[in-house]
Amino acid sequence: MTLLKTLEEPPEHVKFILATTEVHKLPSTILSRCQRFDFKRISPEDIAKRLSFVADKENIDLTPEAAMLISRIADGALRDALSLLDRCASYGTEITEKVASDAAGIAGREHLFELVDAVISHDSPRALTIIDELYNNSCDMERLLSELLSHFRNMMVALTVPNFRELVICPDSEIEIIRRQAKSLTLESVLSCMDRIGDAIVAIKRGADRRTS
């Protein structure tokens, strides 16, 4: 009640700015007393451009692939992208895709594609070996699953949209890999894999073993 009264009759010199990512949790009594502005996620392309601009000003050699990887990890949040860029800069003034992967604690893209190849060929021993190596190298398993889910989503788009390039977020060098791997799968199998990966992400969030989920 005190907050409502303050919002209704604020001091002349005070402006309240309320920010939330879960606006649905705000009481209607609060919303009715506010002007609402909805901000959208920033596109990965725009984040990558901003990162390149900042890197240039700071005399940091940031490769386009690294900029795109950081922007994809940031998931629309420029502040998170800049924080990760700053973390990468602690590794040196040259930031490659591998440096960005190491700083974020995720698997390199080559490991990701190798893992998917093992899944496609039903090579369970190889897939488990890759996962074990990544786990022992302190790879973030939840982030690995998120990257896998994104990659399978790209393959789903490749299987359903003839000119899919504009609908996927990745460097040009990965397009042929996506196309090749997608051709080895049916749409149903891709969707099934996405469901299983989604279930694994939920299991990890609930505290399941990160190596076996």
TrEMBL record:
Residues 100-191 form the DNA polymerase III gamma subunit domain. Residues 47-92 form the DNA polymerase III subunit gamma/tau helical lid domain. GO terms for biological process: DNA-templated DNA replication. Transmembrane segments: none annotated. The keyword Cell cycle does not apply. One of its GO terms (molecular function) is DNA-directed DNA polymerase activity. Keywords: Nucleotidyltransferase, Transferase. PANTHER family: PROTEIN STICHEL-LIKE 2, REPLICATION FACTOR C / DNA POLYMERASE III GAMMA-TAU SUBUNIT. This is DNA polymerase III subunits gamma and tau. It comes from human gut metagenome. The lineage of its organism: unclassified sequences, metagenomes, organismal metagenomes.
